[in-house]
Amino acid sequence: MSQTAPETERETVRRLVERTVFTPVRGAGAVAETVARLGEAIGLGLLRPGDRLPAEMQLASALGISAVSLRSALVVLRSAGLIETTRGRGGGTFITEGAAVDLLPAADAPTAGALEDLATERAVVEGGAAALAAERATPEQCALLESIVDGMLGMQPFEAWSERDALLHLVIGDASGSPRLVTRIAELRAEAYRISRFLPTTDAILAIADREHAEIVRAITAKKPTRARSLMEAHVRGTARLQAGLGKITNDPRSS
Questions:
Q1: 102 or 112, which is more confident
Q2: For 64, phi and psi rounded to 5 degrees?
Q3: By the 8 A CB rule, do 188 and 122 touch?
Q4: Which CATH number fits domain 112-255: 3.30.300.30, 3.30.420.40, 1.20.1270.360, 1.20.120.530?
Q5: What is the chain's mean pLDDT, rounded?
Q6: Which one, of 174, 177, 158, 224, lies nearest residue 14 by Cα?
Q7: pLDDT tens digits for 31-49?
Q8: Which class for 180: exposed (0-12), middle (13-18), buried (19 or more C-beta within 10 A)?
Q9: N or C, which end of the chain is more exposed by having fewer CB within 10 Å?
């Protein structure tokens, strides 16, 4: 009886991209939503330099938009230098080098209330995902989580560390067995990344996150759902507290 080969990290990332990026877009403006969807995937490191986008008809179908809308979105991304298209044999549309740098710029500084609200949602969603992952993660998923955590130790620069951070949280969501959770975590990661631009990224701060990540993964691999949930909730709330204390967080006008 043959056994299925363990999924590699690259295969996991590809599957996560299909589940969180190449899915129907929501919202009234198909072009704007498509630009946002692909741009955020590039910023989070899900789509990396050199990655080839699916053929136009295939991508338009996956996103649930017309070919005309897709071409308009690709024009915007191409004009911003995020993708490039080559013709001929081996041609296609590819993510460009350096596309992720400063791709998800922060707009206005978040209010303390907005930051707390995001932390609350992340605690509920990602805490629940961690608990389910502790119950359902396969040995291969546990090994991948451990590998990601080990690789993040001392990683520089911040942009490279942040890509692995996003992947870690998405793989935990994937290990929960819920595609809807993976999709929501991807959306929350984009919001969290924007806000992280207000937070000084010192070695000490990354070391705290690395330690918390390792504890979460240990709880998942040890099949301890209650502890995994508690650690994840503490992690996302602690991150929000760091941002509130060290970042450029504004006061909620309603509290003044």
A1: 112
A2: 70, 35
A3: yes
A4: 1.20.120.530
A5: 84
A6: 174
A7: 888 887 888 888 778 888 8
A8: exposed
A9: N
pLDDT tens readout for residues 174-229: 999 999 999 899 989 888 877 776 666 677 778 889 999 999 999 999 999 999 99
- What confidence score (pLDDT) does residue 5 get? 61
Report d(CA 183, CA 125) in Å as an integer.
Answer: 11
Q: Hey, where are the domains in the chain?
A: 9-95, 112-255
The topology (CATH level 3) of 9-95 is: Arc Repressor Mutant, subunit A (1.10.10)
Q: How confident is the model at residue 164 (pLDDT cuts 50, 70, 90)?
A: very high
Residue 256, pLDDT score? 38
